Each structure stands twice: as C-alpha cells, then as structure tokens.
C-alpha cells in the first residue's frame, strides 16, 4: 500500500463551517419529523383499524427516535486533522488474530505487520493451533501464541479469549490488533501512537476498508457511513467504538478492566451463591422437624452475617474464610450432639459404648468434614462451601481484560473502558485493508453475528443503566443498539401498504393534503440530511440493506434475548476470510424477503386494478404505490447479492 | 411424612429409604419405625439401596430405630448400603452393631 486514504480534510475552519450547516439542516429535519409524528399521534390514527394503525404509528415513532439518535451522532462528526507525532520509545505488540484462515493469508498479513516502521514485536495468535503456521511464523522472526492446557474444559470466549490469552504472555505498553486478513500500512503506528500522549486515551480506532469489493458493492460490505460520520460523531462525543481490528489499545487500560472485572465478578459470584444458599436454608427450615431447627437457624444467621459484612465492604476473602470457619464449627457441634445421643441410645440397648469408636476427636472431625457434614442436609450449604472460591475456577484466566459477555467483544470492551473513564479516538485514515466476504451466505452470517453481539450487550450491560458513562456516551451506544431493532418496524412498513392496496385498510385518517404537507417535506429533508452528512460517500447500499435484511435483525434480537435470559446458545460461527464465494444461487437465504417482494408485487397489481375500476381513492393509492416501490427497490439489492460470484480484480475498485 | 414399607414376610417389613439420610430426614425414619412397630411389625429391614448419602444424624437415626425395635421386642437390620454409608458405619465401628446385609431378602435369612 503506497497511498494513504485520508478524506479531503480541508482544515479546522472548513470543518466548522460544514458542521454549522449540517447542524442547521439537522434541526430543520428533526422539527419537520416531530411535527409529522406528533400529528400522527394526535390527529391521524384511524382507530377503526387500530390493529395496523397503532403498529404503524409505533414504527414511525421508532424511526423518529432512530433519526434523533443519528442526528445527535453527526452533530459532532468532526474530522480530526493531522495526527500528533508518535510517542518516543513506546513498546508495542502487534497481534494478528486467526482461527482457521489459510496460512498463506495469515502470513501475508504477518509480513506486512513485520514491516511496520515503528519498533514493535509481532505475534500471531493462532486459535487453530496449527504446527505449520507456528513454523512459518517463527521462521519470519515473529512470535507464535496459542492456547495452553489451562483452557482445557473452560469457556474459550472466541476472539476475546484469544486476545486475553496473548495479553497474559506479552508485555508491550500498546497493542495493535489486526484481523488475519488486515494488511497494515507501514505507517500505522506512527499515525496512531501520538494520541496516547494523553494518558486517558485507551483506544485509537482506524477504519476497516476492504480491497476485494467492486464499486457497486453488491453485498454492502463497506460501511462508509459508519466509518465516516458515525464514528466521527461518536468520537466527537467521547465514545468512538472499538471495532475489533485496525485499532491500538493501551495495555494498562485493558488490565484495569481485567482487574476491576475480576473483583466485581468475584463479589457477584460470592453474593449470588450466598443468597442462593440462604434461600435453600429457608426452604429446608420449613420442611425440617424441630430437632434440626436450631442448627439451620444458626446456619442462616452465619450466611446473613457474611452477606452483611460484604455489603459493608469488608474484604471478601476474609468474610468467606470466617463463614467457612463458622459453618465448620456448627457442623462439629452437630456431630457432637448426634454422637452423644447415639451413645445414650447404645447405653439403653445395653452395649458398652466404650467399645465403639464414637468418642474420638478424629471420628468427630471426619464426620464433620465438608463432604459428609450434617450441614449437607441443606444441600446448598455444601455447594456454598465449595462455591466460595475466589480464584474464578470456572475460567481459564482469573483476569479477563477483553469483555466476554458478548460475541462482539469489541463493543462490550469499549463501553467498559468508557465507563471506567478512559477515552477513545477515531482517526479516519485507512491504515489497514482487508478482505470482505464474497458470498451472501457468509456476509449474512457476519451481519447476524454483529447484530447478535450488539443486542447481547444491550440486554446484559445496557448503556442506559451502566454506571460511569456520560449521557452522550449512553446515547451513542444506544444509537447503535437501537438501529438493530429496525427489523420490527420494517415488517410494519411492509404490511401497511399491502393492506391498503389489497384490502383498502386505512391506517391513517386521510392521505389527503394534511398528510402530504407534513410527510413530504420531512421525507425530503431526511433524505438530504443523509446526503449532507455523508459528504458524498455512497450510503444508498447501506440504506437498502437496513431495510432488506429485516429477517436478520429480527432473528438477532430474539436469539440474543434467548441467549441472555434463557441461556440458549447463539449458534455462533466464525466468519471465514477465504473461500467465501457462493457456488450456486441460494435463494433460500432470502426466503422471507422473496415472500415479502411477491406480496408487494401482488399489491401493486391489485391496487392498480382497484384504482382503474374507480374503487380506490387515487391519492392514497398513489402514495402507497410509491411506498411499495421504495420497499421493492430497497430489497432489489438482494438480487445482485444472491447472484454475486465474488470479486473480479479486473473490475475497478472504489 | 414417612418412608414406604413393603412386606417381605408376614412379619418382616422393609422400609425403603431413598435420597439423603441426614439431619433433615432423620426424623422421618424415626417416625416410620415407630409407626411400623405400633402396627405390630416385629422385624424390620431398612433398605438403603436408594439412599445416596448418610451423615452422623442419619447414623443416630439408625441406632434410634434399633432401640425402638428392640424395646418392642423385635429387631432391626440394614441392607443395601452404598460405599459412603458403609464408610460412616465403619468409621464409628457401628458395623459391629448393625451388620450391613447385601439385600433386604438376606437380612433375616438366618
């Protein structure tokens, strides 16, 4: 790579002027939008067809909120100028993460990484544990890291686990993360390390650009809107996202996350287990007889006491040690009581109790030991005693710097960094280029994964309630998550015109002038806002896919919800980087969209017939026909996508 | 609550203990034995085949049950103990009082 792709940055003043006009247009668009949606709620819902009228107005409300969040984002979408000069003498580890990509691909990336000009150590993080890749890597003078035995039988956490494993075996102050296909520019560190002069900066993200994508971008692989105004806007609000590759991270910040995460996880585990145990002791008390009541009461009191101490901030290790000792004493006392009773029974039976082994300390101690303690009557107590484990034995590593709560570890990690007060930078200069999937099937898998991961974070660590984020940061995370809810709105947007054209069901009171005068100016302003915000970048493909992939977004929402709340697996697949081309036209991938398109086409025919025979209201019919055509044009992107057979290098790249 | 009793012989009752014989369930065993003795059963076998675990309270309950049976002029034996139960019996030498039989059928075979 010889030329760096920086967008035409025309200086601070020009940026300020552009941003001023953009903000004026944003305010205008939102004013028109709220005027329209307000009127929809207050004066235009056709209650006699409420079953479609209410979903439609809810979908429109969803969209105006989406637009508001987008507007907030681009409000500060300022391009950064020339990066500051790199730090002197920083130590840097370059990580190339791979799972199953072909060795040639990884080695090509590795060679580029080795030639990065700033001094650094390069590592291949091979989750596929391939001997030939190890040999080739070491021959090139780079380090090779794979998982050790400690991961056996423990959750692997995919890429996050791969990175965490390597973080524990390396020492550089900064880490450049590259996906297996991301060929870096030699200047990548020189152009990013300077931002770390500010000691609060934890992350510098650069764009992800793909070289195997034709200008028409049939699969919508490039994300110019996201890697342009959206990331710049998030950056403006102090919330630039980590996108998993082409980013430099500060090790100290990651370790900070690892340590605080460890403490929080330990406390949470101990408190949860203790509460669970207390609940089970309660339940046991209700069905136990009077003889065992006193010891159960004491057990409960001991657990309550421990919970209270943890609540007061006493060190968990001490509190749990004390609890273990208390429970052991209770156990000892119970065995003593049992054996005394037994001795007196033996006496009455006429046996000489001294002939038996029931008075020795050793027997008492062994009967009171954890595995056969009378306290095990409350099964939970046994579990509690075992669960008081502050070594996080359920994980291969006690300290997990990269977040493991989501299949998109990058977003989850960035949000935690922001919540801890670290800052991030988005530098819009392409410094590494990679390969996008070349077939629709793989492309859909990848998008599903992103959407699922985002929704996992939404459900697990919702940005609206996570402590430590600023309000704008909350909005920036919410904005991305909110956009993945669009599938539900799209279903309504597809159904409403079909119902009107075929069955005459009217979701609004009227499609006449009052509707037109509010809707049309808003729609025009909205489309122009995208044009202005994107500074001439091609964003239409992205808009098409937002609508056309509605089944993917819906599936992502429910599978993520089922995963977070019911523990159901996501069925997660690693996105391959090679051999991603389709070998046949797989219409099955877009079955829902085909069904919707057929319904839309039928509605055009039926609606036109009604219009011609004079049964239908002309203005309403024309509006709905236009609406249906818009839906169809959006979904038409999939026709090119499903027939796409991969990138032909002779075709011009953008 | 009490454990089910099967009839092996006209006067041999088999008490089927299942799950854990411990602090919480010890009372249940005592009650079952008292009921069986009151109903006139002279000879009782405690079948531990399905007992998964026994602690010192469970051990005490076995001896208590023996005492109840003897006081009524009968006898009580145990059968089907698993490894953990045998360990507790051996630890306290109680196997010298209550001999663990393989099966309920063999307990009163003599």
Can you describe this structure in just a few lines?
Chain A has 654 residues and is of the alpha/beta class. Chain A has helices spanning 12-43, 50-75, 103-114, 131-139, 158-167, 226-236, 251-287, 293-311, 316-349, 361-367, 379-387, 409-419, 440-460, 471-483, 486-503, 513-533, 540-548, 550-566, 591-612, 618-635, 637-643; strands at residues 5-6, 92-98, 121-126, 143-145, 174-179, 183-184, 201-205, 209-210, 247-250, 423-426, 429-430, 432-434.
Question: What do these coordinates show?
Answer:
The complex is a heterodimer of chains A (654) and B (110). Chain A is α/β, with parallel strands linked by helices and 654 residues long. Chain A has 21 helices and 12 strands. The radius of gyration of chain A is 31 Å and the shape is globular. The N terminus of chain A is likely disordered. Chain B has a single domain, classed as STAS domain (Transcription Regulator spoIIAA, 2-Layer Sandwich), CATH 3.30.750. Helix content of chain B is 38%, strand content 31%. Chain B has a 5-stranded mixed sheet. In chain B, β4, α3 and β5 form a beta-alpha-beta unit. In chain B, α1 packs parallel to α2. The mean pLDDT of chain B is 88. Classes of the chains: A alpha/beta (654), B alpha/beta (110). Chains A and B meet through α9 and α10 of A and α2 and α3 of B.
Summarize the helices and strands and which ones pair or pack.
The complex is a heterodimer of chains A (654) and B (110).
Chain A: E1 5-6, H1 12-43, H2 50-75, E2 92-98, H3 103-114, E3 121-126, H4 131-139, E4 143-145, H5 158-167, E5 174-179, E6 183-184, E7 201-205, E8 209-210, H6 226-236, E9 247-250, H7 251-287, H8 293-311, H9 316-349, H10 361-367, H11 379-387, H12 409-419, E10 423-426, E11 429-430, E12 432-434, H13 440-460, H14 471-483, H15 486-503, H16 513-533, H17 540-548, H18 550-566, H19 591-612, H20 618-635, H21 637-643
Parallel strand pairs in A: 2-3, 2-5, 3-4, 7-10, 8-12
Antiparallel strand pairs in A: 1-11, 5-9, 6-12, 7-9
Helix pairs in contact in A: 1-2, 1-16, 2-6, 2-14, 2-15, 3-4, 7-8, 7-11, 8-9, 13-18, 15-18, 15-19, 15-20, 17-20, 19-20
Chain B: E1 5-9, E2 12-21, H1 26-38, E3 43-54, H2 56-71, E4 75-79, H3 83-91, E5 100-101, H4 104-107
């Amino acid at each position: 790579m010889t030329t760096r792709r920086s967008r035409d940055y025309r200086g601070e003043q020009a940026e300020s002027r552009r941003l001023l006009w953009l903000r004026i247009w944003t305010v205008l668009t939102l004013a028109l939008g709220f005027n329209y949606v307000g009127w929809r709620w207050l004066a235009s819902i056709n209650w006699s067809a409420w079953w479609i009228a209410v979903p439609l107005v809810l979908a429109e409300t969803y969209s105006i909120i989406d637009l508001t969040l987008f507007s907030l984002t681009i409000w500060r979408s300022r391009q950064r100028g020339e990066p500051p000069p790199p730090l002197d003498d920083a130590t840097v580890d370059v990580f190339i993460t791979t799972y199953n990509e072909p060795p040639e691909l990884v080695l090509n990336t590795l060679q580029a990484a080795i030639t990065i000009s700033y001094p650094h150590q390069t590592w291949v993080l091979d989750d596929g544990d391939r001997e030939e890749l190890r040999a080739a890597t070491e021959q090139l003078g780079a380090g090779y890291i794979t998982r050790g035995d400690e991961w056996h039988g423990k959750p692997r956490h995919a890429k996050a686990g791969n990175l965490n494993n390597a973080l524990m075996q390396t020492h550089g102050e900064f880490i450049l993360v590259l996906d297996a296909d991301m060929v870096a520019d030699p200047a990548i560190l020189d152009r990013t390390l300077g931002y770390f002069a500010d000691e609060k900066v934890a992350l510098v993200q650069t764009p992800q650009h793909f070289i195997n994508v034709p200008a028409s971008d049939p699969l919508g692989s490039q994300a110019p809107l996201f890697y342009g105004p959206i990331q710049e806007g998030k950056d403006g609000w102090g919330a630039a996202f980590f996108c998993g590759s082409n980013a430099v991270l500060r090790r100290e910040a990651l370790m900070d996350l690892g340590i605080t995460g460890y403490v929080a996880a330990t406390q949470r585990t101990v408190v949860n287990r203790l509460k669970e145990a207390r609940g089970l002791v309660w339940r046991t008390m209700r069905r136990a007889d009077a003889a065992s009541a006193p010891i159960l009461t004491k057990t409960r009191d001991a657990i309550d006491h421990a919970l209270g101490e943890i609540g007061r901030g006493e060190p968990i290790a001490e509190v749990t040690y004390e609890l273990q000792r208390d429970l052991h004493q209770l156990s000892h006392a119970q065995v003593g009581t049992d054996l005394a009773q037994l001795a007196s029974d033996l006496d009455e039976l006429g046996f000489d109790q001294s002939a038996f082994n029931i008075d020795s300390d050793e027997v008492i101690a062994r009967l009171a030991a954890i595995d056969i303690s009378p306290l095990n009557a409350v099964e939970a107590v046994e579990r509690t005693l075992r669960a008081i484990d502050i070594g996080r034995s359920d994980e291969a590593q006690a300290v997990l710097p990269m977040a493991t709560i989501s299949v998109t570890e990058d977003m989850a990690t960035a949000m935690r960094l922001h919540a801890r007060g670290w800052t991030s930078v988005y530098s819009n200069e392409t410094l590494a280029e990679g390969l996008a999937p070349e077939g629709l099937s793989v492309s859909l898998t990848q998008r599903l994964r992103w959407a699922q991961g985002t929704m996992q974070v939404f459900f697990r660590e919702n940005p609206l309630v996570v402590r430590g984020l600023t309000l704008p940061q909350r909005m920036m995370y919410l904005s991305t998550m909110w956009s993945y809810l669009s599938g539900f709105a799209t279903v309504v947007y597809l159904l409403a015109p079909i119902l009107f054209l075929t069955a005459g069901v009217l979701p609004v009171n009227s499609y006449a002038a009052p509707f037109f005068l509010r809707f049309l100016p808003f729609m025009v302003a909205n489309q122009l806002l995208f044009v202005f915000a994107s500074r001439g970048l091609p964003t239409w493909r992205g808009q098409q896919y937002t609508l056309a992939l509605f089944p993917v977004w819906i599936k992502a929402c429910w599978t993520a919800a089922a995963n977070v709340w019911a523990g159901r697996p996501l069925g997660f697949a690693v996105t391959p980087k090679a051999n991603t081309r389709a070998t046949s036209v797989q219409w099955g991938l877009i079955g829902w969209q085909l069904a919707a398109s057929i319904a839309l086409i039928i509605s055009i025919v039926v609606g036109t017939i009604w219009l011609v025979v004079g049964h239908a209201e002309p203005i309403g019919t024309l509006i709905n026909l236009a609406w249906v055509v818009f839906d169809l044009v959006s979904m038409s992107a999939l026709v090119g996508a499903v027939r796409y057979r991969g990138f032909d290098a002779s075709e011009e790249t953008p | 609550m009490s454990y089910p009793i099967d009839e092996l012989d006209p006067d041999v009752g088999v008490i089927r203990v299942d799950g854990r014989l411990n602090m919480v369930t010890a009372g249940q065993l005592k009650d079952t034995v008292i009921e069986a003795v009151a109903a006139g059963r002279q000879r009782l076998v405690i079948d531990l085949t399905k007992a998964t675990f026994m602690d010192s309270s469970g051990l005490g309950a076995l001896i208590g049950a023996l005492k109840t049976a003897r006081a009524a002029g009968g006898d009580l034996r145990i059968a089907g103990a698993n490894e953990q139960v045998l360990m507790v019996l051996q630890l306290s030498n109680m196997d010298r009082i209550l001999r663990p039989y393989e099966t309920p059928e063999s307990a009163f075979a003599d």
